[in-house]
Recover the amino acids of this structure.
């Protein structure tokens, strides 16, 4: 196979982010844009050059090699199983599904054909600033990390929350609230740098009447290596200040990832820190497709396998449980 013939299933807001990123995946051709709402399929087709289709079944006649499943969370299992049955390589948007039992069914179905690639498309795995910070930490730039902070406080983007009937406001459709939906993008980098999370304690709240799940999370995470981190994610009601995305504190200094894409190193040389890298969160989506391409076309192992993504789901679920029990909750077991 010299190039990858891809069908995009689900032509909502996130599909445009992926479509822009796919232009940097030089060996992938979008040949089908699939959505039951014809206007959405046609719009994405105009951006990618693919054919607008109403269903995956219709698109399969175009000779697809792989599909990108970019649909609401409660539809992940159905479409993933249908795609595996059709012999497709599959890139599935995070989270894998709305509950762990559904995730296990997806993983079990994917395992039946080991010649096909199954990627859980968590773009934070490829976030340039996170990768730069992890490299600095691995090189010992701030000594041994003993604590960290992850913070996300942002209003609901109109394209993802278009009205009060948005599927993201439904706990059943989304799998909960912001801990899982938005929070996974912040939990993944913490795991990449600090390792596995053992237990959590947190509070949750609801700021939006329309939203059935939590829209506020403030929590502490305890890692297997003994480090701790705070993890906060809030769907804002009003204007917000510019707080760093991440702060890693070590025995020799600190690394801060700002909302402006800067990686600042505080090593005692400059009290304002030294900017050692400038990145762009949106470039993380290009990383998704470059990794998927290499896995399918070159046989390269994925940067993180789909099973690994269960750590974000388990962490989010443990935080929500802790919000009810008001005590530490185990993430695994």
């Amino acid at each position: 196979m010299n190039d990858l013939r891809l069908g995009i299933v689900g032509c909502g807001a996130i599909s445009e982010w992926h479509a822009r990123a796919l232009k940097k995946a030089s060996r992938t051709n979008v040949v089908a844009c699939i959505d039951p709402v014809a206007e959405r399929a046609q719009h994405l087709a105009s951006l990618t050059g693919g054919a607008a289709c109403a269903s995956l079944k219709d698109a399969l006649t175009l000779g697809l090699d792989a599909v990108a499943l970019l649909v609401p969370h409660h539809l992940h299992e159905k479409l993933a199983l249908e795609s595996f049955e059709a012999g497709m390589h599959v890139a599935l948007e995070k989270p894998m599904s709305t509950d762990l039992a559904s995730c296990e069914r997806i993983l079990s179905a994917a395992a039946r054909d080991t010649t096909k690639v199954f990627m859980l498309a968590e773009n934070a795995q490829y976030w340039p600033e996170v990768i730069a910070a992890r490299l600095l930490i691995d090189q010992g730039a701030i000594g041994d990390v003993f604590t960290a902070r992850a913070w996300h406080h942002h209003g609901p983007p109109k394209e993802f929350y278009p009205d009060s009937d948005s599927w993201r406001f439904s706990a059943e459709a989304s799998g909960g609230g912001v801990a899982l939906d938005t929070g996974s993008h912040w939990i993944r980098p913490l795991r990449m740098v600090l390792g596995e999370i053992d237990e959590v304690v947190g509070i949750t709240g609801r700021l939006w009447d329309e939203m059935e799940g939590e829209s506020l999370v403030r929590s502490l995470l305890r890692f297997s290596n003994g480090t701790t981190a705070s993890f906060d994610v809030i769907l804002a009601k009003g204007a917000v200040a510019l707080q760093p995305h991440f702060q890693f504190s070590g025995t020799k200094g600190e690394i801060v990832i700002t909302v402006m894409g800067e990686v600042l190193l505080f090593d005692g040389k400059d009290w304002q820190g030294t900017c050692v890298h400038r990145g762009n969160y949106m470039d993380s989506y290009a990383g998704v497709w470059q990794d998927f391409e290499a896995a399918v076309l070159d046989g390269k192992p994925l940067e993180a396998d789909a099973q690994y993504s269960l750590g974000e789901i388990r962490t989010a679920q443990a935080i929500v449980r802790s919000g009810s029990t008001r005590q530490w909750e185990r993430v695994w077991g």
